[in-house]
Amino acid sequence: MDSSDVVPAAIIPSANKGSKQLRACLLCSVIQHPLDFRKYGCPNCEELMQMKNSGDRVTACTTTYFDGVIAVVNPEASWVAKWQRTSKYVRGMYAIRVRGRIPEDVEHELENRGIKYRPRDQTDQD
Ligand SMILES: [Zn+2]
Q1: 99 CA to centre of ligand 1 in angstroms
Q2: Ligand 1 mean position, distance from CA 16 (Å)
Q3: pTM assigned to the model
Q4: Ligand 1 mean position to 28 CA, how many Å?
């Protein structure tokens, strides 16, 4: 698979939309405007979250309760991204800490795929 000429990226929220309304994905912690989540889904885990065109799913799968914002411009090289376990993700804005859990059906889906869900509220720090 060679898609190097198209660099995937999250929709960078513009400041004038009002940062209070921004939401962070509960699974990958990417930060976007809720309208962008609704329009495009999550750039990293839409396959699991299925937020596109569903306001309910956006509400269930993202949260406004996050703090700390890091910009990941080059996910492969960024040590911050590695620390945040986001090195496989698209570039964009990510929350350092996200409160809340993904919906149960998504957690089950992750289990089915052999992926262990790690909440991003830093209760699992190693
Ligand atoms: Zn996500």
Answers
A1: 14
A2: 23
A3: 0.76
A4: 4
